[in-house]
Amino acid sequence: MTDLSTTYLGLRLKNPLVASASPLSRKVERVQRLEEAGIAAVVMYSLFEEQIIHESLELDHYLMQGTDSFPEAMSYLPDSGTYSLLPEKYLAKITELKRAVNIPVIGSLNGVSKGGWVRYARLMQDAGADAVELNLYYIPTDPALTAGELEDAQAALVADVKASISIPLAVKLSPFYTSLPQFARRLSEAGADGLVLFNRFYQPDFDLEELKIAHTLELSTSSDLRLPLRWISILHGSLDVDLALTSGVHTATDVLKAMMSGAKAAMMASELLHGGPERIPAILSELQTWMEVHQYTSIMQMQGSMSRMSIAEPSVFERANYMKVLSSFRDLP
Ligand SMILES: Cc1cc2nc3c(=O)[nH]c(=O)nc-3n(C[C@H](O)[C@H](O)[C@H](O)COP(=O)(O)O)c2cc1C
Predict the structure, then answer these.
(1) Is the peptide bond preceding residue 317 cis, with omega within 30 degrees of 0?
(2) In this structure, are residues 163 and 191 in contact, taking their beta carbons and an 8 Å threshold?
(3) What is the 3-state secondary structure (H, E, C) of 93-141?
(4) Alpha-carbon distance 10 to 170, whole Å?
(5) For residue 281, which phi and psi values (nearest 5 degrees)?
(6) How many CB atoms lie within 10 A of CB 242?
(7) Are the C-beta atoms of residues 238 and 309 closer than 8 Å to each other?
(8) Tens of pLDDT, residues 137-177
(9) What is the DSSP letter of 45?
(10) Is the minimum distance from the CB of 261 to ligand 1 under 6 angstroms?
């Protein structure tokens, strides 16, 4: 019998398929359907630093009106229909999900600066989350900000979040760091138990008729897999963290590649949003069949087997490969 189980952040997963942060986790019934279909864990949609700060500013504003007394001041709050305490709802959703499903539930915090909002990591733990994923989505636009300053701030934030929780912490990253292996090591030293590679950056487009910026979210395809695949292959074995792959996982082949690069989990959003939970049993069954045919007995056995450290020609992940790839293009007639 083929063993599809893996471990991620110290959590035992029945297989490597994890639903990554997306609207899939907004409704309890949707997560129950994912669990029934065979998903091994779910990362919740993100709670953003801006949402937390915004809500606490509004709360301050209401509390300041007329009285210093908290219980009395609460009566100034509009009822929950018109004034919803979003971060509180998020925490309640974690508790609700934990009651409704048996798979691990990972809370997601999305932010970049140190501050009081970080306490929500602890609140996620208290609400029942099995782990926290911190998404460091940031676009630098200030020419005076150095890479070093930015990385210092992000590593300090990771250390802060880690210090406030006792459950595992994963950090979701963009691919845009000058020396990703070094920064990954810093994050590991700052306390990250896992790294999730990579955030998908939603690039704005131009609407030429309206002369506006167009924001459209396009789902990924399997070709998006190559970027995280390369970097997980490079990082695997060099750091004391679990690696999870996100971006471009759509098929059993993609999952197999993710595992062979060294990922502990293959995260999916686009495929599940597009194809529904029924994609999960289809992918699992294909995975199983492929492993049987190729005589693999377990997922763990293949993890990292195609990583930079394991293959005979590690230069394929490096600069040398660039020239090879360019010359592999067949010349024009
Ligand atoms: C509609 C949508 C909403 C998303 N929301 C979040 C989010 O709240 N937090 C987060 O970290 N990632 C979010 N993501 C990114 C996904 O978790 C995932 O990393 C990305 O889509 C790449 O994976 P995929 O190729 O399987 O879609 C979202 C993606 C989509 C498509």
Answers:
(1) no
(2) yes
(3) HHHHHHHHCCCCEEEEEECCCCCHHHHHHHHHHHHCCCEEEEECCCCCC
(4) 11
(5) -60, -30
(6) 22
(7) yes
(8) 888 999 999 999 999 999 999 999 999 999 999 999 999 99
(9) E
(10) no
pTM: 0.90
- Render pLDDT for 273-310 as a digit per residue (tens, 0 to 9): 999 999 999 999 999 999 999 999 999 999 999 999 88
Report the distance separating Cα 188 and Cα 79, nearest Å.
43
Q: What is the 181 CA–ligand 1 centroid distance (Å)?
A: 23
Whether the CB of 200 sits within 6 Å of ligand 1: yes
CB of 254 closer than 6 angstroms to any ligand 1 atom: no
Q: Give me ligand 1 centre to Cα 17, in Å.
A: 15
Residue 86 identity (one-letter amino acid)? L
Q: Residue 82 is encoded by which pair of tokens?
A: 């018109």
Q: What is the DSSP string of 200-266?
A: PP---EEETTTTEEE--PPPP-GGGGHHHHHHHHHHTTTSSSEEEE-SS--SHHHHHHHHHHT-SEE
Residue that has been written with the tokens 């250390």 in this structure: 159
